[in-house]
Every structure is written in structure tokens, then in C-alpha cells.
Write a structure and sequence with these properties.
The protein is of the alpha+beta class and 255 residues long. The protein is built from seven helices and eleven strands. Strands 1-2-3-4-11-5-10-9-8-7-6 form an eleven-stranded mixed sheet, sandwiched between helices.
Length: 255
């Protein structure tokens, strides 16, 4: 059972995604989670409850991309096998914040929630370019956004930043049991250094507060950690994870 909020939150998102996309539930002695997409690792999450080898994780994913969150016991052995199993071992920093009222930072662009099909296409284009999901996963996101976004149950907000009218950066906010999780933060390489990530964090906080939520969490890469620290996030603990990348060629949508 996943009891840590830093892991329970993405697990709850993965479960809701699986419900929308008809994903496969993984329930084993050492691995549990949901596999819902053939082209986007973010839509597939497994969680270890013991020592799990990367080869075992790859078998549980059945050739799909995904994230496999490791507990402390399994982390040491993961380094040796990850390359052979086709994955990359990362160490994410779990961070939390109690958000207070804050001024929206000035930025050379505009930020708005995704509402239309055109917005979603623009959001997904940036997201794929930076994150590495397969373009075919846009169909998955269309269904997820329809069910969980503004026209659905309202638990998921996708944010898109534009610079001079062009899509530049993305973010997402998932609301679950009084906590907002920040996910899918990407910025096109040519547009980095303009404060877009900071502005997206602030916009995410504002959206959470509008819904009565004042506690947030996220999972930061080493390069992203300073941005979040400046936004009052504090590090809780390191979270080892294996990322199995999306395929380079077109994939079938079935799971």
C-alpha cells in the first residue's frame, strides 16, 4: 500500500487516468499501479513495495513507457540493471509548500488554462517536444482532459504559457483530497530563462487557492529544484524512480 503522500498523489492521478482510458491495473507482491498509455510514460505509474529489479518492472509495463517509483530497498540494485532493461534511473526530489497569497510575477508572455481542442493541441505539442512523449498520446490526453478538466470533474487543470502568441511552456495541477500536485512542467529550450516556470508555479498556486486548497506538492528534477525552492517549496525526501521512455515510432493505443 502506498502511504506516503508524495507517492499517493501521483498514484491517485494514475488511477483516475486508468478509469478514463480503460487502463490496466497492476497488482503484484512487489509492484502495483496503473498502465494506461502506449505513448506517454507520465500516464503510466507503478510503485514498488519491496526490492524490484528493472527487468521485473519492464515486464510489468509490458513494453509500455512509464515511471516506476522505487522504495529505498530497491534503489541500490536499480542502477546496475536499468540500462540493460531500457530505463533511466532518476532521483526526484519530493517537495511541498503551504502556499500563501503572492503577487503574480511579471513575465513576457501570457498564461491561461487549456479549454479548447486547439489549446490542448498547443499544450501537447510543447509537452511532447520537451518531455519526450509520443505525439500519438494526444488522443489519450484529449480523453483525460475531457473527463477530468473544466468540462469534466474539474480535478485537472492544464496551463499553457505563450510568448508573443506562440506556445512556450506547460504545467498541470491535479487536485486530490485537499492537496494540489504540480505536474508536467516543461519549457521550450529556446524560451528558457524568461521566468515562465516561475509564472506557471504562481498560476498553479492561484488556481489551487481559488478551489480552497493551500497545500501543494511536486517532484523536482535536480535542474528544477532551485526554481521551486524560490517559490517556497521545501525538500522532503529523495525519490528514486525508473523512467522507461516512450517509443520513437507510432504505437497502437491499446494497453
Amino acid at each position: 500500500m502506498v502511504t506516503d503522500l508524495l507517492l499517493e498523489h501521483p498514484r491517485a492521478l494514475a488511477e483516475k487516468v486508468a478509469g478514463v482510458l480503460g487502463g490496466r491495473t497492476v497488482s503484484g507482491a512487489d509492484l502495483a499501479g496503473f498502465v494506461s498509455s502506449a505513448g506517454d510514460p507520465f500516464l503510466n505509474h507503478l510503485f514498488a513495495t519491496g526490492s524490484v529489479a528493472p527487468r521485473e518492472a519492464a515486464e510489468a509495463l509490458q513494453g509500455r513507457p512509464g515511471f516506476v517509483w522505487l522504495d529505498d530497498e530497491s534503489a541500490a540494485g536499480a542502477v546496475l540493471e536499468s540500462a540493460a532493461a531500457g530505463s533511466v534511473r532518476l532521483v526526484m526530489q519530493g517537495m511541498v509548500a503551504d502556499i500563501a497569497r503572492e503577487a503574480q510575477p511579471a513575465v513576457g508572455g501570457e498564461i491561461a488554462g487549456v479549454r479548447t481542442a486547439a489549446d490542448l493541441g498547443a499544450w501537447h505539442g510543447v509537452y511532447c517536444e520537451v518531455f519526450g512523449a509520443h505525439p500519438s498520446s494526444q488522443a489519450d490526453w484529449r480523453r483525460v482532459h475531457g473527463a477530468l478538466g473544466p468540462s469534466g470533474d474539474g480535478s485537472l487543470l492544464l496551463l499553457l504559457a505563450r510568448v508573443e502568441g506562440s506556445p512556450a511552456a506547460t504545467g498541470a495541477v491535479f487536485l486530490h483530497e485537499g492537496v494540489a500536485g504540480l505536474y508536467c512542467f516543461t519549457t521550450r529550450e529556446s524560451l528558457r530563462g524568461r521566468g515562465l516556470a516561475t509564472a506557471l508555479v504562481s498560476a498553479s498556486h492561484a488556481a489551487a487557492r481559488d478551489r480552497g486548497v493551500e497545500r501543494t506538492l511536486l517532484h523536482a528534477t535536480p535542474s528544477g529544484r532551485p526554481v521551486y525552492a524560490r517559490a517556497s517549496y521545501r525538500a522532503e525526501r529523495a525519490l528514486p524512480v525508473l523512467r522507461f521512455p516512450a517509443p520513437r515510432v507510432a504505437v497502437r493505443p491499446g494497453v
